[in-house]
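Thread amino acids onto this structure.
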């Protein structure tokens, strides 16, 4: 179980939320980016420490990010890359949770 994908996604979400706010003064971008980013970072820290619910938190953050970015996929490369990275992170943590629970 690696916390590195969650650390990377957390950092990218926070930077993306702050960048979205700086460019367009979008409060929803700031709140969503920082909120999902903090959930990823909390999950990464929990995975690293071996405490409960870290994997589930990362999977949930991936699902939130994917579901929020899917409606905007056709609007440009940034939402498409966001959806792709969220899907990759979700599939990684989904497989990890599945394997962890089935053994």
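Threaded sequence (103 positions):
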């Amino acid at each position: 179980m690696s916390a590195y994908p969650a650390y990377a996604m957390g950092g990218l979400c926070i930077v993306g939320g702050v960048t979205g706010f700086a460019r367009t003064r979008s409060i929803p971008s700031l709140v969503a980016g920082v909120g999902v980013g903090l959930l990823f970072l909390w999950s990464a820290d929990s995975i690293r420490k071996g405490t409960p619910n870290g994997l589930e938190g990362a999977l949930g953050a991936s699902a939130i990010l994917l579901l929020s970015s899917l409606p905007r996929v056709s609007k440009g490369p940034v939402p498409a890359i966001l959806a792709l990275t969220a899907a990759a992170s979700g599939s990684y943590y989904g497989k990890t949770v599945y394997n962890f629970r089935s053994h």
